[in-house]
Inverse folding.
């Protein structure tokens, strides 16, 4: 018995050290817990043999090796049958949940040009490093960590913590690193190094670049979160600017596979306070719960196993796949969505539609709309400026003028955005380029109009309305389509443009007419008309109706008098 306690005691100490380093998940659908037990019994068996002075292996050592062997068989054999898509194809397909088909323009409203993001992650890294380099004392001991995009008080920012450069810098700065960096996703001039909050110095103590008890994953694990898998440790700030780490908690929903997010562990980056939430109870300021890798894999399984496993490897009938690349997009409701194009098996340049997946709830919507892939849009934009050797950023999908549109930046060799491109997702030959978002938008609008597209502007959240008298009106024909230009009296700054698609009253409007115009609020003096009404035309029609009514009344009265005279 004494030998038993000694062998098991020593094995337990070794396993405790192993668990402190490896952080195994202690639940039945993870193999890491079984692997830990295997190592424990193997160690116990070896210690039994070392402590046994006899020439033969003791019965206890044999039992330990037997238990380890049985567990090893369990870990190897059982997971194959309960996890393999050969047997569980339908379970993998159902992981994404119900996928609703919807209409893009009904779910996603047109966005203001000012809200369109042109700063990608690579550019944010360059801008952040430049900002940090302005303060050598901080840059020598810290570096900028991983960036994540998030909505802060309605504005999009790339946010990253300052983290330790190496273990030496960690040892000499155990009180944490000094703050975080914010880079606007819409304005490359807005770069901030945030070091204080409410007058107090910010110290990022817990981070992935720290060690031992300050290591982020280990800190959460030792706080009691041992029964869930943890992934995607995202640095986020709340609307007050307080820094947190958000780790997605997950379980395996298909045997020992099919990773599925079930909640979050939110860590105060300074104090280390850990709070565990379900998906439903996770604070609203947290943008994403569903890890990108999980969502992409579940979309792939949803499209791949549409008719079972054999169909996915033989005929591939009806198989759909996510296109290359994923981006996080934000709706007018402030919520974030994982976006990816959907292609048929074997398709390279075109998509059959695209999908938006809520990054919190995983609610999924499919938009069956043929068009270009993201890479095709990038190639088209690069081809327009091939003499400059610009490189396209990965595009972000927006509703522009009622059309699904890829918006991307064109960067020079220094990594700076020199031009912006709007590319129609329906037809990548329709493209608008410009040195600014506003210029690219105007050129894209012209390109759409020249192709005879119906444009949707009326529900733009940044539209304005004006009434006045027409002082000048003229027209210009582009690509067989007529564009009308209007200038109002007592308004020397603005020129309004539109086509008859906006209103049938526009072509018959003349100087002196009183009109009402709704237009998009932009930084240019030329405004695109979203709604148009000619007050004079309506009044004239009403006046004509009233005159006809009075004439009819007069005729009826005269007829009645004649009848009365005859009597």
């Amino acid at each position: 018995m004494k030998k038993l306690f000694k062998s098991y005691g020593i094995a337990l100490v070794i396993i405790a050290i192993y668990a402190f380093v490896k952080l195994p998940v202690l639940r039945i659908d993870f193999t890491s817990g079984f692997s830990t037990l295997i190592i424990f019994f193997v160690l116990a068996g070896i210690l039994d043999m070392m402590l046994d002075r006899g020439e033969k292996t003791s019965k206890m050592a044999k039992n330990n090796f037997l238990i380890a062997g049985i567990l090893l068989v369990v870990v190897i054999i059982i997971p194959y049958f309960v996890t393999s898509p050969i047997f569980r194809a339908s379970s993998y397909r159902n992981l994404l949940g119900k996928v609703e088909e919807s209409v893009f323009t009904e779910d996603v409203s047109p966005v203001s040009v000012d809200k369109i993001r042109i700063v990608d992650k690579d550019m944010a890294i360059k801008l952040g490093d430049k900002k940090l380099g302005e303060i050598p004392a901080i840059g020598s001991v810290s570096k900028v960590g991983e960036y994540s995009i998030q909505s802060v008080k309605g504005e999009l920012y790339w946010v990253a913590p300052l983290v330790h450069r190496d273990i030496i810098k960690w040892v000499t700065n155990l009180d944490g690193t000094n703050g975080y960096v914010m880079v606007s996703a819409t304005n490359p001039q807005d770069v901030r190094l945030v070091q204080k909050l409410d007058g107090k110095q910010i110290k990022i103590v817990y981070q992935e670049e720290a060690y031992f008890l300050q290591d982020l994953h280990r800190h959460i694990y030792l706080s009691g979160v041992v029964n869930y898998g943890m992934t995607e440790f995202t640095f986020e700030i709340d609307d007050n600017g307080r820094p947190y780490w958000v780790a997605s908690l997950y379980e395996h929903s298909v045997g020992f596979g099919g990773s599925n997010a079930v909640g979050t562990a939110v860590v105060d980056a300074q104090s280390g306070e850990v709070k565990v939430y379900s998906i439903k109870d996770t604070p609203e300021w947290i943008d994403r719960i569903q890890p990108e890798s999980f969502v992409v894999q579940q979309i792939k399984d949803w499209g791949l196993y549409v008719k079972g496993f054999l169909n996915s490897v033989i005929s591939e009938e009806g198989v759909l796949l996510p296109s290359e690349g994923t981006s996080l997009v934000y709706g007018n409701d402030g919520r974030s969505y994982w976006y990816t194009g959907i292609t048929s098996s074997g398709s390279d340049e075109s998509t059959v539609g695209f999908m938006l997946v809520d990054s919190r709830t995983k609610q999924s919507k499919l938009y069956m709309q043929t068009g270009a892939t993201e890479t095709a849009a990038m190639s088209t934009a690069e081809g327009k400026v091939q003499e400059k050797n610009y490189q396209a950023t990965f595009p972000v999908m927006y509703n522009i003028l009622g059309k699904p549109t890829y918006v991307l930046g064109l960067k020079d060799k220094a990594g700076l955005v020199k031009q912006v491109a709007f590319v129609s997702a329906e037809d990548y030959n329709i493209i608008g380029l410009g040195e600014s978002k506003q210029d690219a938008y105007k050129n894209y609008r012209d390109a759409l109009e020249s192709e005879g597209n119906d444009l949707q502007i009326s529900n733009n959240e940044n539209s304005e309305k004006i009434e006045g008298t027409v002082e000048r009106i003229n027209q210009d024909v582009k690509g067989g389509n007529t564009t009308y230009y209007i200038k109002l009296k007592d308004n020397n700054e603005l020129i309004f443009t539109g086509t008859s698609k906006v209103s049938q009253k526009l072509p018959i409007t003349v100087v002196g007419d009183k009109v009402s115009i709704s237009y998009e609020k932009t930084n240019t003096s030329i405004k695109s008309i979203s709604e148009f009404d000619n007050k004079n035309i309506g009044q004239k029609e009403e006046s004509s109706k009233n005159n006809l009514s009075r004439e009819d009344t007069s005729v009826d009265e005269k007829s009645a008098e004649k009848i009365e005279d005859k009597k």
Q: What stands out?
A: The mean pLDDT is 88. The chain has 14 helices and 29 strands.
